Amino acid sequence: MADHCNLVSVLGLFLVLTLFHNPITVAGQTIPAVGLFTFGDSNFDAGNKQTLAKAFVAQGFWPYGKSRDDPNGKFSDGLIAPDFVAKFMGIPIEIPAALKPNVNVSRGASFAVADATLLGAPVESLTLIQQVKKFNLMKAASWNDDFIKKSVFMIYIGANDYLNFTKNNPNADASAQQAFVISVTNKLKNDISLLYSSGASKFVIQNLAPLGCLPIVRQDYHTGMDQCYEKLNDLAKQHNEKIGPMLNELAKTAPGFQFTVFDFYNVILRRTQRHMNFRFFITNSSCCGVGTHTAYGCGLPNVHSELCEYQRSYLFFDGRHNTEKAQEMFGHLLFGADPNVIQPMNVRELVVYPVDEPMRESWEPTTSATVQASDFSRGYEYY
Question: What does UniProt give as the signal peptide span (predicted)?
């Protein structure tokens, strides 16, 4: 009897050790204690613009952060998508702005800065390559190589390049637009390659939103309430079409390079076109600002901006940034959605994917037929 009990105990101990040896097997949720690093523009800025700017930065003051009574430099009424991704990854702190002094970067940092571009020299901001260089300056003193290799690197950038190009070249023909897209995407590839050579191996690339549907763009180009500015949407689509194939190529040529692409363009477009499915009442103008689409000047001291009564009914908080309600949706989609939204794997799958192992799947274009089939079977509100 005693021998039988001892055998059961040993087998039980072996089972427990087996389960906990590989975190992915535990309830399907537990993931390794890794970090999250973000790069790009105001969509991922956790407060770096406040450090770089010499003048007043509205995002450090009310009504920004109003949903949490915490205006901390983020371009929303509360948290932003990387905050939710970090939470789902089990990171117990918000990802801090890397350029702020005396912050806890033990589980990652945000190097994203408002007004960032891939090309040019943005004022009181940083290009993506400058952000990567800042990361490299902090790397040795803050994180070891193994931690960096296992951590997630999220990037969203390019919108300002196309907004500036369209503003400065209103009559650009198709060939000029195509040439500019090639310049931007080639620079993005080079900058990602530099980050890879700095030790990063797990990348989440968020493609561009339908820029012509941003409230500030609708307002600036006088599209009315029902139309988007299609010239900017076309540039965003041309840009996005190059991202997946570019990353497929890097995964084949760069050992250990792993990635996924978040289809932010269609996530925003669906919420714009079928807003009631996602419980948004207004998606063509913003909660805070002035003008025809309430899109300009939110929080600026010299602007008498309007503020909506209930921000959770809006997709956009200001002229180009989403409300916390939308940001939380994006966080859920990034972390756990299916290939119609993020592919070839979601963030949870990317985190637990073995380091240095070649990817078994590649990015594939999502066809409208595939999306429609999923809409029918699972409900459009899922995406």
Answer: 1-28
